[in-house]
Amino acid sequence: MNRRHFVGLAGGALAVTAGAAYLLSDRQNIVRSDVPPAEATPTLQPDEAQILWLASLAPSGHNTQPWLVRRLEPYHWIVGNDRRKWLPAVDPQQRETLLSLGAFLQNLESAALSLGYACQWTLLAETNQDERVMEVRMSKAGASDATNVASIKSRRTVRSGFRRDELSQRDVEHLVGHEPQFIHYLPANGPAAAFVNTQTNEANRLQAARDPAQEELADWIRFSSVDARQYRDGLTTGGMEIDGVAGWVVRNFYDKASVLKEDFRKRGLAQVREQVSASAGWILITSADGSVASLLETGRRMQRLFLKVRERGIGLHPMTQILEEPSTRQALPSAVGLGENIQFILRVGYVATYPPPVSLRRPVAWFLRA
């Protein structure tokens, strides 16, 4: 066999091996539409199952989905706080957990109304750490209102593709609605937005340098499609908008240890700088105070805002790191003139193409308690 023939055979064998390896690799992002609907939950009435599924489409930090539901009787539940889903490194007081539960409650109420049920609420929690948060009783209320169901199903966090055009006054008024005391738009060309830009980069730098925060992040990244299908929560490559070759590399070659490496941290900070540099500005959401009731209502307020944006081609990207790092949190209220109870910071901007929802959700049976 001559050298040229040998090289040709070797090259062909290598190509076949590489091709086979690729075919056996984790080749595609797992998104919500790839996961088949969960089987029916025998202990629930059909309407109950539908309401809880729609409620579970609410956003949460790292997509932890920190809710649980105890069914006392048909259409009579207690919504609870699942401590297994807490994020102590970035949310030590469970402030963000309650905000997520508020979003869940808003979805639950909207879903119930869509099926003709009225909700009666009783607040149970006295602290952010109480497991029993809210009691809800549902009763038939006549005509149904399905207005928000499509919005609930299509809601998603958008991380990329933001335009720099400022929001029109008409769109600002639509988003703020009747809550100008709580929802505040900071246009990109203003000094308050410039401050938030700078401090967002700084807060991310501080957080990336904290090993506990990075370890917590690593715990909630579902690197492989196998993990994504197993857990149905957390941050997938699809949810983080890591597509194409980059997504393939992450799914096949990254793991929890990768998150603690310097290169991963630097890439994350570079991505944040790119995101911060492109938007229409920021929306900040405040609360009346820091009580359990106010935090839950603020989470509901944020979810109502999320349900308004797709129809206007507006993306929202929560970036709360400023509020999670003490030094940046302390400087924020006076710099933007909004007082002390800022609970949400959302990057906002028009997007040319609105992508479908991709983040995964656990089946209702997984968070239902008898």
CATH architecture of the largest domain: 3-Layer(aba) Sandwich
Strand order in space, largest sheet: 3-4-2-1-11
DSSP, total strands: 11
- How many structural domains? 2
**Alpha carbon gap, first and last residue:** 73 Å
Strand content: 15-25%
Shape: globular
Helix content: 40-55%
CATH superfamily of the largest domain: NADH Oxidase
CATH hierarchy, class of the largest domain: Alpha Beta
Mean pLDDT: 91
Counting copies of identical and different chains, the oligomeric state is single chain
CATH fold annotation of the largest domain: NADH Oxidase
Q: Kindly name the structural category.
A: alpha+beta
Low-confidence blocks of residues:
6-18
User: For the CA atoms, what is the radius of gyration?
Assistant: 22 Å
Order of helices and strands: HHEEHEEHHEHHEHEHHHEHEHHEHE
What's the main sheet like?
5 strands, mixed
The helix tally amounts to 15
